[in-house]
Amino acid sequence: MGKQITPKVTWVGKIDWELKSFHGDELSTHKGSSYNSYLIKDEKTALIDTSWIPYDKEFVANLKQEIDLNKIDYVIMQHNECDHSGALVELMREIPDVPIYCTAKGEAIIRGHYHKDWNFVNVKTGDTLDLGTTKLTFIEAPMLHWPDTMFTYMSEENILFSNDGFGQHYATESLFNDAVDSSEVYTEAMKYYCNILNPFSPMALKKIKEILAMNLPLDMICPSHGIIWKENPSQIVEKYLQWADSYQENQITVIYDTMWQSTRLMAQAIAKGIQDADNSVTVKIMNAVKDDKNDILTEIFKSKAFLIGSPTINNGYSFAIAGLLEMIKGLKFKKKKAAAFGSYGWSGDANKLITEKLQEAKIEIVNEGIRKLWVPDQSMLEECRQYGREFVKSL
Ligand code: FEO
After folding, report:
1. Ligand 1 centre and the CA of 222: distance in Å?
2. In b/e form, how buried is each residue of 286-319, taking b as 16+ CB within 10 angstroms?
3. Is the CB of residue 99 less than 8 Å from the CB of residue 7?
4. From ligand 1's centre to the CA of 176, what distance in Å?
5. Which atom of ligand 1 is nearest the CA belonging to 35?
6. Active site residue 30
7. Residue of 49, 81, 90, 299 marked catalytic
8. Catalytic site residue 117?
9. Is residue 23 annotated as a catalytic residue, yes or no?
10. Which of 105, 162, 182, 313 is the right S-S partner for 148, CB 3.0 to 4.6 Å?
């Protein structure tokens, strides 16, 4: 059922407590998610975004509890990935002639997904839609995170509808940021930014500055996933300005995979050495198989430097490390430093290959890393510890 968030705006989305992975299995969603859709009832009525395909019938049935569908004057589609456009077919079956407002790229994506000849109205930045006492202004936000993305600003109620921007995969029945655990929300908001928006940070930075320069009064930010930013909505904008600008904390993350524990022992010794040299730095050790890949990537996002360790296997590195290196490259981290480590039995190629892959990802390589033959004994582990001390000093 819908939830009224202002006299004119009702949330009509779907809270998905069961969602544990997103984008296939590309992104873990430990805390579930929501697909937020908003119904604006003014002299004219507009629906902003819909829901994910599995909930299309539920979405339309719930919407009918809020309004006679024939009273909807406009459908606004801000971004057309299927988690937001998935209920369009079910909805438009009932109101086939209602205009769908979206960017030109949005129209192409809707056509490409659903192959329907609906009544599209293309909008650009600055275009407006008068609803009577309020007005919607569209702001294109290409590549945040798809080419079709746009934001919508509602005057008088001073609401920015931001679609994926400022969102989090976070299920809550409470809806507003002042009614939930703030640290949980920020954990999920950062994970969301890192894993979805980070590759587009230059565009994010530019777009946010452009919106701030518009000096729009802002009472609320309504994203398409997670909570609505009602209490001090600018706080998440300020966070985005930091996150989009080569974000790092005083953290070093040591990530490893291991076959027979040798690379794990090396990881622990290197981490001890880092702490010896600088006990102000936060050191985290993560296992590439046992820890969640997106949580590892989020820890890299927070780090000023990281180390990647793998035993050499079949003249290369492990399956888990291979996947992680591919994701590190795709997320386009900026101003991170790294090095490789690992145990080996004969060829010992993993360090060199990991280093090459990190270079491909435009990560600054601190040094050639460290590798140890077979099972490291105490003196070898002391060398790893010393390596950790020197790693910190060379940052
Ligand atoms: Fe939430 Fe890019 O879809």
Report:
1. 14
2. bebeeeebbbbbbbbbbbbbbbbbbbbbeeebbe
3. no
4. 20
5. 1
6. no
7. 81
8. no
9. yes
10. 105
Q: Give the homologous superfamily in CATH for domain 252-390.
A: Flavodoxin domain (3.40.50.360)
Range(s) of the chain covered by CATH 3.40.50.360:
252-390
Task: Print pLDDT tens along the chain (395 aa).
Answer: 799 999 999 999 999 999 999 999 999 999 999 999 999 999 999 999 999 999 999 999 999 999 999 999 999 999 999 999 999 999 999 999 999 999 999 999 999 999 999 999 999 999 999 999 999 999 999 999 999 999 999 999 999 999 999 999 999 999 999 999 999 999 999 999 999 999 999 999 999 999 999 999 999 999 999 999 999 999 999 999 999 999 999 999 999 999 999 999 999 999 999 999 999 999 999 999 999 999 999 999 999 999 999 999 999 999 999 999 999 999 999 999 999 999 999 999 999 999 999 999 999 999 999 999 999 999 999 999 999 999 999 99
Question: Rounded to 10 degrees, what is the CA torsion of 138, 142, 144, 148?
Answer: 80
Protein residue closest via CA to atom 3 of ligand 1:
81
Query: Is 83 an annotated catalytic residue?
Result: yes
Please tell me what DSSP assigns to residue 251: E
In which residue are the tokens 């599209």 written? Answer: 120
> Cβ < 6 Å from ligand 1: which residues?
79, 81, 83-84, 145-146, 164, 224-225
Stated pTM of the model = 0.97
Ligand 1 atom nearest to CA at 149: 2
Which atom of ligand 1 lies at the shortest distance from residue 196's CA? 2
CATH topology classification for 3-243: Metallo-beta-lactamase; Chain A (3.60.15)
* Minimum CA distance residue for ligand 1 atom 1: 164
115 given a catalytic annotation: no
Three-state SS for 291-316 is CCHHHHHHHHHHCCEEEEECCCECCE
